[in-house]
Amino acid sequence: MNVKVTSVDCERPELHSITPFTVRVLRQIPGPDRPDYWLAELNQPLTWRRENGDLSVTHLALCARWVGGSISPWATNLPINIAYVTDSTVLSDTTLDLSKCYYCAIGTADVTP
Question: Cα separation of 39 and 26, whole Å?
């Protein structure tokens, strides 16, 4: 499944510069507050410029923004929450540890199988 992020609402210039962009969804993962987060891989890494040094971001954690919404095949114009994965160990974890992510944006997305 792929997610095409068609717009973002954030102050992250590195995210604005690649929008629209498509990510490949790897798997669903439960988090501490909901069961339906998704880990996704960027086609190309982006560089997050931070005060304490740059970080190459290769993966995102996504979820539907509103209760009742779902990242499912053929969803269109879906409001989503977007977080950078800041610790790659989350990719092999069984639950999403939000301290390994940085919430960065609200987006709108279209999903394709």
Answer: 6
Q: How many CB atoms lie within 10 A of CB 36?
A: 15
Closest CA to 98 of 30, 15, 24, 14: 30
Domain that holds residue 24: 2-112
Q: How many domains does the chain have?
A: 1
pLDDT in tens, 3-56: 999 999 999 999 999 999 999 999 999 999 999 999 999 999 999 999 999 999
Helix (H, G, I), strand (E, B) or coil at 90: helix
pLDDT in tens, 88-102: 999 999 999 999 999
